[in-house]
Design goal:
Elements lengths: L2 H14 L6 H12 L11 H18 L1 H11 L5 H36 L2 H28 L9 H11 L9 H11 L4 H26 L7 H31 L6 H21 L1
Helix pairs in contact: 1-2, 1-3, 1-10, 2-6, 3-9, 3-10, 4-5, 5-7, 5-9, 6-8, 6-11, 7-8, 8-9, 9-10
Length: about 280
């Protein structure tokens, strides 16, 4: 992988990991369209993948540091009993929402990725990701008019539903953040609250992915060139993720009525064009 390819992939990872447009889908489709001759599943790609996840995770931690700090201090009772119960409840919601992905990922991730990991499949699922975002925007109006909720007002059942939506991301082309935001919207959250819960959920998921891939490096230690490339990519991915998160949180607060629609149209156009292009090239 050249430095230019690494720079482009790091930019994509930093933006698309949090934007509801599927980072994995872009990582599969782009190399196929540009005829890049490297394998995303090759062992030599591991250091790069680990550092991209690490850069994104650090960016999320920096941006949501006040949220995590408030949750931890609240959970230990520093701000009174009411805040303590609320903080513990939010921690519980994050745990419950993560369980479905842990179970489904442990049982079926390899199977799903092997069956649907081609660029053509990713393009189809990217198109379906756009449909999901668009359909959610249409359905949520009835939910919001009935009840508008905050994160602390979610129940364990709501967390399970959002966690099940997260499992859709095991199909390359379906966005983890997009799916979980959709789940939050359909449980009565506004876009900014749904996005905040989604990004808080992302922190342990991305850290777990980083640790899991990192353990594989013990069996295939990288050379100096791979390390330098991966470190540079991590910085690019982290800075891009930080800027993306800041933009998205402001954007969702300002465009609550139709915030997902531009991303939906983007996914549908890119997925459709990529599928036709890949078929034509094939």
């Amino acid at each position: 992988m050249s430095y230019m390819q690494a720079f482009i992939m790091a930019l994509l990872q930093g933006a698309t990991e949090l934007f509801p447009v599927s980072s994995l889908g872009h990582a599969v489709i782009l190399p196929a369209l540009l005829h890049w001759n490297y394998d995303l599943h090759d062992v030599s790609f591991l250091p790069f993948l680990v550092m991209l996840h690490l850069g994104t995770s650090v960016a999320l931690l920096v941006f949501f540091f006040r949220d995590w700090r408030a949750l931890f201090l609240g959970a230990v009772g520093r701000d009174g009993q009411r805040i303590q119960l609320e903080s513990l409840h939010i921690f519980w919601l994050l745990i419950v929402a993560t369980i479905p992905a842990v179970v489904v990922g442990g049982l079926f991730e390899h199977l799903l990725r092997s069956f649907f990991g081609s660029a053509s499949s990713a393009a189809v699922f990217l198109f379906l990701n756009g449909l999901l975002l668009l359909l959610t925007e249409r359905l949520r109006s009835s939910v919001v008019t009935r009840e508008v909720r905050c994160i602390a007002g979610l129940t364990s059942r709501d967390a399970v539903v959002i966690g099940l939506f997260q499992c859709l991301a095991f199909f390359p082309g379906l966005s983890r953040s997009g799916a979980t935001i959709c789940g939050g919207l359909l449980r009565g959250l506004h876009h900014d609250a749904a996005a905040r819960f989604s990004f808080l959920m992302a922190q342990p998921v991305i850290i777990a992915a980083t640790v899991r891939e990192g353990f594989k490096l013990w069996h295939a230690p990288p050379d100096a060139g791979q390390i330098h490339l991966a470190m540079a990519a991590a910085v690019v991915a982290g800075v891009t993720a930080l800027a993306s998160t800041a933009f998205l949180m402001r954007y969702f607060r300002s465009h609550d009525r139709w915030a997902m629609t531009p991303f939906a149209l983007y996914c549908m156009v890119l997925g459709g064009v990529a599928f036709l292009a890949l078929r034509f090239m094939g």
